[in-house]
Amino acid sequence: MNRIIKFYHEMGSPPSFYRITSHWLTPLLVLALGLTLYGLIDGLFFAPEDYQQGDSYRIIFVHVPAAWMSMFIYAIVGVAGIMTFVWRMKVAEAVMMASAPIGALFTAVTLLTGMLWGKPMWGTYWDWDARMTSELILLFLYIGVMGIYAAYDEDPRKAARLAALVAIIGLVNLPIIRYSVYWWTSIHQGSSVSLMGGSNGIQDWDMLRPLLVMALATKFYFLYSMLSRAQSYLLKTEQHKQWVSKAIDGQARHKPGVSS
Amino acid sequence: MTPTRKKRLLLILMVALGVSIAVAIFLTAFKENIMFFKSPTEVSAGQYPENRNFRLGGMVKENSMQRIPDTLKVEFIVTDFAQDVTVQFEGILPDLFREGQGVVTIGQMVNKDLFVAEEVLAKHDENYMPPEVADALEKAKTQNAKYEQGGIE
User: Fold this and answer.
1) How big is chain B by its Cα radius of gyration, in Å?
2) What's the CA gap between A15 and A249, in Å, rounded?
3) Inter-chain contact B124–A53, Cβ cutoff 8 Å?
4) What percentage of chain A has pLDDT greater than the value 90?
5) Quick check: A64 and A194 in contact, CB under 8 A?
6) Helix A130-151 to helix A90-121 angle, to the nearest 10 degrees?
7) Which CATH superfamily is domain B36-123 in?
8) What values do phi and psi take at B108, rounded to 5?
9) Pairing state between β B84-90 and B114-123
10) CB contact, 8 Å: B120 with chain A?
């Protein structure tokens, strides 16, 4: 228990956050790339075709993990936003602002892959049903968080607090996206995968496996990308602090090759 | 927690609560507008806009689809297993359009019993499976049906 508290405090201080997460980047990237490669090959070549959609359903191996990430990352942006607003933690600011563009990217991928699937399956690229509209609003929320931060350039710490406020207010959209297909009639189908199991959705393990692998791969990619972006954010906002020059010196000394 | 942090936390909780209530009220007030389509039950009860397009959604009733000869017109029944509405459509149906499958049609009621659709969208369900599994399920279903029929006789 004491070790967990110690770890939490260490992660809250920019120099030790930078030092600790530096060691994680390479393994995270290797895991992300390896699992993506395996998941895509498994999903595109080895998973059986669907009884109704044939091969067109294979976009699910990108669409669904991306959609999960779009919401998962927003939850992280929101929680980091609360920590930014209430505790004024620098690392939380870094995590929030580092996560937002990655989340926006996953949201855009979700919307685009959904449109590509929608045309042949539903007969339309886009319609304003509750699921699609709320996912589009999620994209605007991400853009809002980034936009407000960029617009207020006098004081990055104050800018982060303003962005945090938008992020926190936007949290209300997450349950709306999740339950939109159950609260209202929609053209989008319900969830095919649920934690509780159930007898509907995807039961076939050869279909489910690549989906779960891709879900894991996107998580590792997010962690890799978020941590390296958060590091740059801290280096930039703390550039006049001593630990930054030390960290950069240390890296320069170790070059060329692996960092520490 | 220091008093300032407590104050900030309280402030943020109040903001979150306020926004949630506002959004909940908004969504309840516009429930009808957020609904993507109307069901055959609603339409049969006369709850639809007249002379204006709306969406009607449900299942395509089994064995209800018929092509009108020498035209591109098709006629089928959309059902929610309580009420049926007859739909006429001229054009090309989406790939997933099938009897027993979900469908969303956009058009209007020309009279009390006929919906003329300008657009037909297929609604896919959340079930994905390989063809062999679907075949096996279908076989089991027909066998079960036979067994039950046998039981009645």
Assistant:
1) 23
2) 14
3) yes
4) 74
5) no
6) 150
7) Nucleic acid-binding proteins (2.40.50.140)
8) -140, 165
9) parallel
10) yes
Q: Domain residue spans in chain A? A: 26-45+57-189+207-237
The token pair at B93 is 């149906």
**H or E stretch including B22?**
helix B3-29
Residue numbers in B near A121 (CB within 8 A): 94-96, 122, 124
Q: Please report which helix (H) or strand (E) contains residue A24, including its range.
A: none
What pLDDT, in 10s, does the model give residues A27-65?
Answer: 999 999 999 999 999 999 999 999 888 898 999 999 999
User: Distance (Å, rounded) from C-alpha A41 to C-alpha A47?
Assistant: 9
What is the distance between the alpha carbons of residues A82 and A73, in angstroms, rounded to a whole number? Answer: 14
H helices of chain A, in order, are 2-11, 14-22, 25-41, 60-87, 90-121, 130-151, 156-170, 173-183, 205-237, 242-254
Which residue in B1, B11, B36 has the most chain A C-beta atoms within 10 A of its own C-beta, making it the best mutation to test that interface?
B36
Half-sphere exposure of A146 (CA within 13 A, CB side): 15
Is the pLDDT at B8 greater than 60, yes or no? yes
- B56 touching A (Cβ < 8 Å): no
Q: Tell me which chain B residue has its CA closest to the CA of residue A168.
A: B16
In this structure, which amino acid lies at residue A23? H
Q: For chain A, what is the mean pLDDT?
A: 92
Rounded Cα distance between A216 and B146, Å, is 45
Note the pTM of the prediction, 2 decimals. Answer: 0.90
**B128 carries a ligand binding annotation:** yes
Which ipTM was obtained for this model?
Answer: 0.83
Cβ proximity of A39 and A217 under 8 Å: yes
CA A81 to chain centre: 15
- The size of the A-B interface in CB pairs under 8 A is 119
User: Tens of pLDDT along A96-108?
Assistant: 999 999 999 999 9
